[in-house]
């Protein structure tokens, strides 16, 4: 089973979270593989065979440890929240005791990981296919934060906070 | 083990490919889970607890069947290529017999899948948190194809083919 999820991290630990009711978080300490991939573009080669994707990818292996200590739980959830939406932890209402109890936080030590990166042009510039005279290169894929869309239920005139407004138009997932 | 990979599909079948030497494709007919996720934006709620991600996700379960028939292999690879880079299959040099032999193509029947989607504003408009007067809404994430970057090894003046040039500036992964 492979489940999409968000994450946070510090130098030593990866944090994942979810509902206490979530089936995918109930594996206890069974080993998992967490894979994070950013696609940077398509590599368009002279031959179909040499086509590729430019990407940055990490595979992290470990046995998740459920975090029960309240301070570590708050810290891990803050890391997760700030990784996705910097500034929101201090702007929004922070978790209540009840909400914390409903949330499972898993910690995975960043001890065993495999990192793969591909960047740059296709690999067939020196092949006989170069004589075909075809165009070859990279088609970049760029992820950008759009304009904030207000909740239709908001009272008119509620200002977009600066930490959210400032992200609009910026590139996500920079190296 | 969770491995990032590209894919192609038709109404009934998902196709994955890789090198014959690839360890991750050598599981034979052992069941796999293929998960595809597109992130559409962040859901910024009034409380940290109600924060979420807007996304479209499919989890496909099945036992991969190695494709050995030459016609099906070419058809599956073409689907995969055209899904990523429409027009390249006919523009670039198509696979030779040797290249086909070096490529593993796996077919997974699209019989068992789970699809999840979240869209729209946060869920706490009707909660007591609405009285906090905080901004809430969605921060969209938009993926766009950039300008084609020519292989530095190309002879000057090699024209970008129209099917590649036409993608620049267009949004990827539209619904």
CATH domain class of the largest domain in chain A: Mainly Beta
- Across the major sheet of chain A, the strand order is 1-2-6-5
Alpha-carbon Rg of chain A, integer: 21 Å
- State which percent range the strand residues of chain A make up: 25-35%
Number of helices of chain A: 4
- Principal-axes shape call of chain A: flat
Briefly note the CATH topology name of the largest domain in chain A: Pnp Oxidase, Chain A
Number of domains of chain A: 2
CATH superfamily of the largest domain in chain A: Electron Transport, Fmn-binding Protein, Chain A
Low-confidence stretches of chain A: none
Helical content band of chain A: 10-25%
Q: Give the termini separation of chain A.
A: 29 Å
Instruction: Give the quaternary arrangement of the chains.
Output: homodimer
Mean pLDDT of chain A: 95
Q: What is the number of strand segments of chain A?
A: 9
Class by SSE composition of chain A:
alpha+beta
Give helix and strand order of chain A, one letter per element, not per position. EEEEEHHHEEEEH
Q: Tell me about the biggest sheet of chain A? A: 4 strands, antiparallel
């Amino acid at each position: 089973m492979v489940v999409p999820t968000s994450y946070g991290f510090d130098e030593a630990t990866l944090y994942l979270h979810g509902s206490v009711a979530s089936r995918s978080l109930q594996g206890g300490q069974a080993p998992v593989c967490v894979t994070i991939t950013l696609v940077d573009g398509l590599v368009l080669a002279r031959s179909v065979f040499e086509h590729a994707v430019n990407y940055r990818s990490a595979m992290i292996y470990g046995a998740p440890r459920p975090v029960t200590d309240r301070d570590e739980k708050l810290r891990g959830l803050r890391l997760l929240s700030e990784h996705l939406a910097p500034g929101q932890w201090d702007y929004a209402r922070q978790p209540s005791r009840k909400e914390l109890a409903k949330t499972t936080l898993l910690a995975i030590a960043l001890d065993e990981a495999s990192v793969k990166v591909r960047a740059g042009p296709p690999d067939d510039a020196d092949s006989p296919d170069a004589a075909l005279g075809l165009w070859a290169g990279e088609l970049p894929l760029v992820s950008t934060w759009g304009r904030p869309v207000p909740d239709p239920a908001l009272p008119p005139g509620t200002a977009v906070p600066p930490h959210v407004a400032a992200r609009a138009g910026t590139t996500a997932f920079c190296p």
